[in-house]
Amino acid sequence: MRAQFQAKSILDTKTDLMAVAVFEETKAGARDIHQIDKKLNGAVRKLLEGAFKGKKGESFLMYTAGRLPFHWLLVVGMGKEDKYQIKGARGFVGAAVRAARRCNAKKIAFPMECLFKKDLSLTIEDFIQQLAEAASLANFSFDKYKSRQNGDGKTKTVEEITFIGSAFKASRQALQRGVNRGRLVAESANLARILSNEPSNVMTPAAMARAALEATRGMGVRCTIRDERWLHQKKMNAVLAVAQGSENRPRFVVLEYQPAGVKESPIVLVGKGVTFDSGGISIKPSEGMEKMKYDMSGGAVVIAVIQALAKLKVRQRAVGIIPLVENMPSGAAQRPGDVIRTYSGKYVEVLNTDAEGRLILSDALAYAQNFKPKAIIDLATLTGACVVALGHEAIGMMGTDDSLKARIKEAGERTGERVWELPLWEEYFEAIKSEVADIKNVGARGAGTITAAMFLKEFVGDYPWVHLDIAGTAWVEKNSHPYLNPGPSGVGVRLLVEAIRNW
Description:
The protein is α/β, with parallel strands linked by helices and 503 residues long. The protein is 33% helix and 20% strand.
């Protein structure tokens, strides 16, 4: 999708659909459409003075019948102006893209003056980046396996968005820079969504390793793909144990992004890459198991973040590590009660084979220390307990370094991919002590998200570390999000790009 900024007025903008925001009570934003009301014989004014109140989520779509430079006018209610936040602007853009797709509008324009408020604590460049991200995310669809879409063989998507405004003091170059950055970040987030949408018979560990290579090819990123033989040589027995029940053999991917002249220690990102999770011998219920194709979302996010950093030429070293396995039950699968010697040398008692994500991450986190990182950040669809604790609105965050957690939290507030910290008190470690090994892979029923993080903490050494449990946010249910369609969300890409870009 093309994206641009133009210093134009509404009446000077030729497009298919013009989307205008109007606030409740104050009707701020109505001035953007008063200038076109005469050409529509007062129809807009009548709606603004009548049934349309500008409440949040309220909207109407009007056909202009060739009387304006655009075919459709969309007016979207923003709610009360004193409660307006950046997420409202992102939701407005999402509503406009969805409306455009319904009426097959290929081009959209957004007047920006009434949307940008100084109390949002964003520069206009960062603000327009957020809108460009939301537009691209809302325009995403995954229809690779539909032989015909919408009855005519074509998918209805928006091809061009234009942000318009003539009253901004910032240079047009700065505004276009924000648009470009937003488009590139969203493209990478959409890559994570594509990878997570692929069915598990397609997105095997080997296929995902190849996808990592293709996603970063020609960008100055070194991609190393290790096979089962290497895993045996390195004694990464936790990865091998999870993978041993599957015909699809494991892979271990390392992506190294090093800008020229940057010598400082890297930030290491580790992503869970379970391309299908049946639960193994501790098999999951059949209901909803088809979604377990997205249990590699953490790994997909790591690939996408490294790609975005390279596209944006961020001056920060970063390493992505993705252990890739399929967790299946078979005569060769690991069993409850097995004991594994991990890459770190610590022994783990496996009580539940469906707690496999923390096993493969234990080897990957220990391996991350070889890069002597300035920070380690891992992402994983790790625990159902996180969904119980936080629902689908926040990422569970735990870690060992306050400044690192603060960076992540600030980036979450800016991007809308919010995090909520849970404690890692030493008392929680008691729940995962084993009588036959150093540690066991599950604790008691309570505090499951925290005890999973306590398990991971044993493998990060003394390096600053944050764990992000995205189990509740990596999948969007039907009609539950203002600018993300149902399915994998790509959550974590914008969060980590923002954190690393502003390091």
